[in-house]
Structure formats: structure tokens, C-alpha cells
Write a structure and sequence with these properties.
The chain is of the alpha/beta class and 335 residues long. Helices cover 33% and strands 31% of the residues. It has two domains: 113 residues, NAD(P)-binding Rossmann-like Domain (Rossmann fold, 3-Layer(aba) Sandwich), CATH 3.40.50; 179 residues, Dihydrodipicolinate Reductase, domain 2, CATH 3.30.360. The two termini are 40 Å apart.
């Protein structure tokens, strides 16, 4: 039985408390929260859990796992303290404010022989797992592009721009589906309210073999959209995360282009076939992820969404900052 401490009972913390309070093989022992109002909310919901605002929730010898759901600028210090006290750590995304801090946490977790996992929940959703299956099976053929739109009206953040707010989801999905062998990245954006923080942004990621990924991120859209298009040589798919009935539609469509000598230069032929929507299970992603985390701890295995993946995502976020500051310059990355 693994005893769990949850740090932070704000926006996402209640979801984590619910999951870790119900999973077999673990017990939620402490909830640490600074806000008196949120402490009272935690007491009302979990009368058998100790509610505190001090370090005992991290340092207690009774605790095996520390789950951190606090603002990103607090992640590094809290995770360091937990790892130094021999705890396994679940860390919300983004992993830390800088890649240097991420790298330090990865090294500390390895030194302490403890599991460090970053909560990229979308990787455990049925649509992402189905897309992964389709890519790995070759059903889509050679991948040409990955195009993502994640927009809505608000919520404005006071400390990070729209890329740092929304792109961790998309970068983690891209990393999981397409791999980490990225050649370069560029970003353009605008801040419209004298905050110095971009509220509309476009990010382009270049992979080898002409594979390209593009992201539209926006706090000023009139409607909420969560849509990804993946194009391949054999088939293409659309993932609409807001569609309750058909989240994924697979299109047997494509084009073949032949280079010709003479007047027209190229000849294109188009293929149009069936449109299918695969069945997806309805299991909760966060619960699957929580169980996976416990299994990794018990088996002594490193999760695929470990600190190294969290580091890659933060490195991409830093590269977008560099590109924004230089007017959209292409930033070369090491694969």
C-alpha cells in the first residue's frame, strides 16, 4: 500500500485527490494547501485525510508518493524536497519553469532511484492511444503533417503566455506520436492588451523527411476548438476532442503527384474513399494514468511520460520564447 500526499487543492488538485483516493494499492494520507478556503473544501470532501499547510506532508516517513499540483514556479523546490526525502513524485505540467531545473530533477530522481512522472494526461486518452496505434501500424502511411488548433475565449494567465499555457498539451502529444527527433521550431505571436504576454500564437515544428507540425494557440477565439489533423500518404484523420460521438474520423483520401516534362510540370491524381470512425473506450484518462504511475513504482520501471519527456516539452517551450523574441526566427534544435 503506497501512501500519497497531494500538494495543492486548487484547479486540478480535486481531480487528483479523487483519483488517488479511490485507486487500489494506494491511500491518500495528506492534502497540503495554503488557502484556508481550499483547506475547508478539502476537509469537507475528505474528512479522513489530514489537511495541512506545512512540510510534514512531504517529509513524513509515512508517505511514499508526493503528487504536486501547484503553480509551475513552485514545482522545482517542492519536487526537490520530495525526492531528497526519498519520495516518488508526480508533477503537473509544465514540469518546471526552465529546462535547467527539469534536467536537475531528472538527475536527482535517478540518483535517489525514485520514479518521477509528469502529468501529460492527454497521452492516456483513448483518441491519442488510437492515433498512436494507427501511426505505428502504418495505417496512415508516411506522415506528411500534424496540424493542431487549441483555441478559446480566455482564460488569461498573469505569468505565462498562451504558448506556455496551452502548448504543453500539444507538445506532449506530438512528442508521443511523432517522436523527439525535431530539427527546428519557430513561433510568432501577438499581445493585444499591453501585458507583454502573447495571447495569440502560431508555432511550427520541423521534423526530418519534410514532416511538419503546426499549432494555432489562441485566448481570443469566439468559440472553443480542440482539433487535430494528421495527414499521411495512405490515410488522413481528424481528431475533434469536443465531438462527443465521433472524436476520430479516418479519411481514405490522398493525392499522388507525378513530375512531368513539358508545359504543365506536374500531374496530380486524387483518391477518395470511405470515412470511418473507430470505436473508442470510455475509460477515464486520469485514472488510467494514476494506475500506470503506481504500476511503474511497484515494478521499478520508468514511465514513458517521465522527467525526460517533461524536459523535452519545456525545452520546446523555451525555444518558442527565443523565436518570439527574434521575430519568428527558426531555432535549430538537437534531436
Amino acid at each position: 500500500m503506497l501512501n500519497v500526499t497531494l500538494i495543492g487543492f486548487g484547479y486540478w488538485g480535486p481531480n487528483l485527490a479523487r483519483v488517488f483516493n479511490s485507486l487500489p494499492g494506494c491511500k491518500l494520507r495528506y492534502i497540503s494547501e495554503q488557502s484556508p478556503e481550499r483547506q475547508n473544501a478539502a476537509r469537507d470532501q475528505y474528512p479522513d485525510v489530514a489537511i495541512t499547510d506545512d512540510d510534514v506532508a512531504i517529509t513524513s516517513s509515512e508517505v511514499d508518493v508526493v503528487v504536486i499540483a501547484t503553480p509551475v514556479f513552485t514545482h522545482y523546490d517542492l519536487a526537490c524536497k520530495a525526492l531528497e526525502h526519498g519520495k516518488h513524485v508526480w508533477l503537473e505540467k509544465p514540469m518546471a519553469p526552465t529546462s535547467e531545473q527539469c534536467r536537475s530533477l531528472v538527475e536527482l530522481a535517478a540518483k535517489q532511484n525514485r520514479c518521477l512522472m509528469v502529468d501529460h494526461t492527454f497521452l492516456f486518452t483513448p483518441p491519442v492511444r488510437k492515433i498512436k496505434e494507427l501511426i505505428e501500424s502504418g495505417a496512415l502511411g508516411t506522415l506528411y503533417y500534424f496540424d493542431s488548433v487549441r483555441v478559446n475565449l480566455g482564460l488569461f494567465q498573469h505569468d505565462v503566455n498562451v504558448i506556455w499555457d496551452l502548448a504543453p498539451h500539444d507538445f506532449s502529444i506530438m512528442d508521443y506520436l511523432l517522436g523527439s527527433n525535431i530539427k527546428a521550431i519557430s513561433a510568432q505571436g501577438s499581445a493585444h492588451f499591453n501585458t507583454g504576454l502573447e495571447d495569440v500564437a502560431y508555432v511550427t515544428v520541423h521534423y526530418p523527411d519534410n514532416l511538419i507540425a503546426h499549432f494555432h494557440l489562441n485566448w481570443l477565439a469566439p468559440t472553443k476548438m480542440r482539433r487535430t489533423v494528421v495527414g499521411g500518404s495512405k490515410q488522413m484523420l481528424v481528431w475533434d476532442d469536443l465531438n462527443p460521438d465521433e472524436k476520430i474520423r479516418i479519411y481514405d483520401k490522398g493525392a499522388e503527384v507525378t513530375t512531368l516534362e513539358g508545359r504543365y510540370g506536374i500531374q496530380a491524381s486524387y483518391r477518395t474513399g470511405d470515412v470511418t470512425s473507430p470505436w473508442l473506450d470510455s475509460k477515464e484518462a486520469l485514472r488510467l494514468e494514476g494506475q500506470y504511475f503506481l504500476d511503474c513504482i511497484n515494478k521499478g520501471e520508468a514511465p514513458f511520460n517521465d522527467g525526460n519527456q517533461g524536459l523535452r516539452v519545456v525545452s520546446l517551450l523555451e525555444a518558442t520564447d527565443e523565436s518570439l523574441k527574434s521575430g519568428g526566427k527558426l531555432i535549430e534544435l538537437k534531436g
